[in-house]
Amino acid sequence: MNKIIDNNRLRENYPSFAIPTSIYEIIFVNRDMKKEVMDKVLNHIHDCTQYSIDTESEMSNNQLALIQIHTIPRELPSLVILIELAQLPREESYTYVKITEMFQLIFRSKNELYSWGNMNVELKPVKDLFTWLILGDLINIQPHFPGWYDWARTQCRVQNLTHRIDVNRDVGNTTQNHLLSLSPCSCHRASPYESHQLWSLQQAFIYGCNLFIDKANTLNHWSSSLTSEHSPLPYARRQKMIKYATYDVMAVTYLAQPIIQRWTFKKMKKMNINEMFITFKSSKLPPL
After folding, report:
1. Which residues of the chain form beta strands (DSSP E)?
2. Phi-psi region of 23 (alpha: psi -120 to 50; beta: other; left: phi over 0)
3. 256 in a domain, yes or no?
4. SS3 206
5. Is the pLDDT higher at 179 or at 43?
6. What angle do CA 44, 50, 51 make, to 5 degrees?
7. Most buried one in 61, 91, 128, 152, CB count within 10 A?
8. 112-115 β-sheet, strand order
9. Could you give the 3-state DSSP secondary structure of residue 34?
């Protein structure tokens, strides 16, 4: 109940994270997937080397039920691939074989897959489901967020200080030293977490981006079909779940580039949203 109250409070106090529908397309991977749609996915991911990945579990038994994969292509639109694990076709079917091929392409060597959480752990239940190996680089950006956030606040403080000293250019060193001691980052609050704690994705967006990600649909019946007319879930509820699953994985992409390339808050604010979702030059994250 407290999580629901907290979620509603944040919704009222922060602007919502919004993504133009023109820059992504949602693909459902299930037993009803058409051949031409699968061919489109395979063609798209063949030239794609960066992805974000997330998972959702069925609320009734906590079993992995949905895998979300967001492609980070050279040119938009990207694809949000929603793999409904409880709705997959028979193993001997053409579609199942192509799903296996899709996984092999996405997780192939030299690919980078960003996540908010340990995907080696989250994907373990399905490693026996498909005959594929994770050869790509699984990059969990969650533990790197605190270091980036503190660094970005420092840069904000330096920029603020530079401006204030520039305005007071004619004052003496004593005044400049005084300004140095009075120039904290005023636009982003200090971390609410202890140094050993991991940030939630929602709090990372609140503090780092001043944006709200709705977590109201986290606990849900993810093993039920998201698209079938025979689904036990009402249409309106399924639409909310689809939007949640889409935004949750795209939120990882949104933060990946700023964390990896060490963007300042100022740069994040100035950046066109389209540029947040295309291929970028990666670099090795610092050791934790």
Report:
1. 24-29, 50-57, 64-71, 78-84, 112-115, 137-140
2. alpha
3. yes
4. helix
5. 43
6. 85
7. 152
8. 24-29, 78-84, 64-71, 50-57, 112-115, 137-140
9. coil
Provide the b/e sequence for 217-245 (b: ≥16 CB within 10 Å). Answer: bbebbbbbbbebeeeebeeebbebbbebb
Say if 225 falls within a structural domain.
Answer: yes
Q: How many domains does the chain have?
A: 1
Residues composing the chain = 288
User: How confident is the model over 46-77, as pLDDT tens digits?
Assistant: 999 999 999 999 999 999 999 999 999 999 99
Q: Spell out the residues 6+ positions from residue 81 whose beta carbon is closer than 8 angstroms to its own.
A: 27, 29, 41, 68, 69, 70, 71, 102
Q: In this structure, is residue 99 part of a structural domain?
A: yes
The torsion of the CA quartet 198, 200, 204, 207, rounded to 10 degrees, works out to -90
CATH number at residue 263: 3.30.420.10
Predicted pLDDT at 163: 47
Is residue 223 in a domain?
yes
Count CB neighbours of 63 within 10 A. Answer: 13
Question: Which value, in Å, is the radius of gyration of the alpha carbons in the chain?
Answer: 21
- For 64, the domain range is 2-145+190-277
pLDDT in the model for residue 165: 44
| pLDDT > 60? residue 103 | yes
pLDDT digits (tens, 9 = 90+) for 192-206: 999 889 999 999 999
What is the helix (H) or strand (E) element at residue 94, kind and residue range? Answer: helix 94-106
